[in-house]
Amino acid sequence: MGFKEIAYKGLETRLTKLASHVLKNGNVLIEVTNTLTKVEENYPNYPNNQIINYQTIKESMNEEILNKLQKIVFEIGGKYIGIMMGHNTELVNYEIGINNFTSSVTRLAEYKEIIRDYQTNLTKITDLTEKLLYDIFDGYAIQEFLLTHGEGVYDIMLTVEDADCIFKRATRAGAKIVKPPKVYSDRQGSVKMATIQIPQTDIQHTLVENIDYNGEYLPGYGRSLTKDVIFDKALTKLPPINLVKIDHCVENYTWNQMMAKAEFYAQILGLHKYWSVDEQDVSTGETALRSIVMASSNGQVKIPINEPAKGKKKSQIEEFYDFNGGPGVQHLALRTYDILECVRLMQKRGIEFNTTSQRYYTNLKSRLQKDRIELFEEIKDIENYGILVDYDPSTKYIFDEEHGRYRCNYILQIFTKPNHDRPTLFIEIIQRHHHNGFGKGTFKGLFETIEEQQRLRGTLTESD
Ligand SMILES: O=C(O)C(=O)Cc1ccc(O)cc1
Ligand SMILES: [Fe+2]
């Protein structure tokens, strides 16, 4: 989709547990992550308690003991991560109980330089241990995610001004803590990050507060030594696709969950209700859904929350829920300034889009005619690509002499087919001509294009 790799972590950046490619197009950032090894089934509990053990060790150590220490061996690998301290001939071994986390054993020699001051060193060991534990923890969570949902959106990262404040609000509102706030640094500066989960789901948000970071992505990421070369070579052969930003990100839930989740977003992130539709607006006679769009006060974050509504046949929200094995992200809407060119180039790269019926365009053309409205795009192009149009006739203010018609605000939208094997996650491409809303018209149109796919998949079955 014309993304360029801007950052990477993995084997080349000395990580053995996880690999990530960070891709960018305009202001759209997508991180694609996978694990490098199978994670142990008996995964230890959340790393915090082990880290606390280290903290206690550090605090309980008095000056006298520290002075008596003759030899410090910092060993990683084998059966445990631990610090062995030699007190005369006695060896004290603190284990933190991680099994087989790496096969490479690093010994004192390699750390001679940094093992000088015991206090600072212990802090370093704690940081390193914590980092490794987080990687193991992430690896475990990613594998759990893949087992349950298949490929999909694992985390929706949000840039915030004050990570501590949002984190506190979220936990007070009942969010599960995945990672408490912590400062991460490298040579390019620091960020503070925390990760929370929406209650009763594994939908998670990483909150990122930029302290003074000016690198490409986040601390700890490097540049791939080989992959970006291959990426670039392939990309330069194709014309660029210009995306602008993530317009909105939609979550699907099961029956009667929408209100509670919307309220939760209001409590944790201070989002407000921006728009909503119910089964009266979005029903095809066969299936239905309800949706509330939650937005941040600056309008930059928009999260529509869907739930199924009763219809003759199974709602597409239920279909998603069944295949996804629970709630999750249904689609990411990416904004462009030229939807025709964007769709043309995405098709060139092999991406398939949902089609729209002939009836839709016959209807659209006669409505435009009746309202005396002219679009900037050729209607035949819009029709060829199967793009949906929602215009707001109340904004009909500029008269176009040449065409003898009016201009008004409108949105152009189209959905890709699901991007993976399960009919779960897909992408929407959206272009806005001064229209910031979610039109009831396109909502219904988009809903119908998925229903059509449901019919083809054979999942448009009688509802229970
Ligand atoms: O208006 C939009 O941006 C939509 O994405 C509408 C929509 C949302 C959910 C569906 O299951 C189908 C259509
Ligand atoms: Fe959408």
From TrEMBL:
Chain sites annotated for binding Fe cation: H248, H331, E428
Organism in which the protein naturally occurs: Hyphopichia burtonii NRRL Y-1933
Pfam families associated with the record: Glyoxalase
Protein name in the entry: 4-hydroxyphenylpyruvate dioxygenase
GO CC annotation terms, alphabetical: endoplasmic reticulum membrane; Golgi membrane
InterPro entries: 4OHPhenylPyrv_dOase (IPR005956), 4OHPhenylPyrv_dOase_C (IPR041735), 4OHPhenylPyrv_dOase_N (IPR041736), Glyas_Bleomycin-R_OHBP_Dase (IPR029068), Glyas_Fos-R_dOase_dom (IPR004360), VOC_core (IPR037523)
Taxonomic lineage: Eukaryota, Fungi, Dikarya, Ascomycota, Saccharomycotina
Function: Catalyzes the conversion of 4-hydroxyphenylpyruvic acid to homogentisic acid, one of the steps in tyrosine catabolism.
Keyword Disulfide bond recorded: no
Reactions performed catalytically: 3-(4-hydroxyphenyl)pyruvate + O2 = homogentisate + CO2
Domain of life according to the entry: Eukaryota
